[in-house]
Amino acid sequence: MRAEDLQNFRVKGVYSEGLVRSLNGYQHDPAAPRTLQNPWSREWAQNWADSWNHPRERVRIDGHSHPQISVPNPPPAELQVDGETLHLAHYGTRGAHYSRTPPPAEWTPEP
User: Fold this and answer.
1) What DSSP designation does 74 have?
2) What's the distance, Cα to Cα, between the start and end of the chain in Å?
3) For residue 9, which of 73, 44, 39, 54 has the smallest C-alpha distance?
4) Are strands 64-72 and 78-81 parallel, antiparallel or unpaired?
5) Stated pTM of the model
6) Alpha-carbon Rg of the chain, whole angstroms?
7) Assign residue 98 a region: left if phi > 0, alpha if psi is -120 to 50, beta otherwise?
8) What is the pLDDT along the chain (111 residues), one digit of tens a residue?
């Protein structure tokens, strides 16, 4: 299951020997089956959970990646970057794709 398909991330204690063994990987100590070898601080774990509860999407503008810009999920139809209005052209598994060209006007039949 993909982490992106999960929701409501929260910090909880780990008490399962199997989960501790999985988290420890090769560093697991059978003499201490319930001891995490590299535990995170509660603050670090909470920051991680908060970031997954408010996901951000990568942005591409006219085919070029912009790693410093991200948008919420779902992305807005229009985005302001440096005083320029960008229009959502496509949204898929590789993030939000914006274009400087506005979308075509929708055709309506004459009455």
Assistant:
1) S
2) 51
3) 54
4) unpaired
5) 0.55
6) 22
7) beta
8) 777 778 899 999 888 888 888 888 888 888 888 888 888 899 999 999 988 888 788 899 998 988 888 898 889 999 999 899 999 999 988 889 999 999 888 888 888
Alpha carbon of residue 38 to chain centroid: 24
Distance CA 69, CA 75 (A): 12
Query: What is the secondary structure of 3-72 as a DSSP string?
Result: GGG-----------HHHHHHHHGGG--TTSTT--SSPPPHHHHHHHHHHHHS-EEEEEETTEEEEEEEEE
- Adjacent-strand bridge partners of 88: 98
Scanning the structure block, which residue is given the tokens 């790693």?
Answer: 67
CB 81 within 8 A of CB 87: no
DSSP 82: T
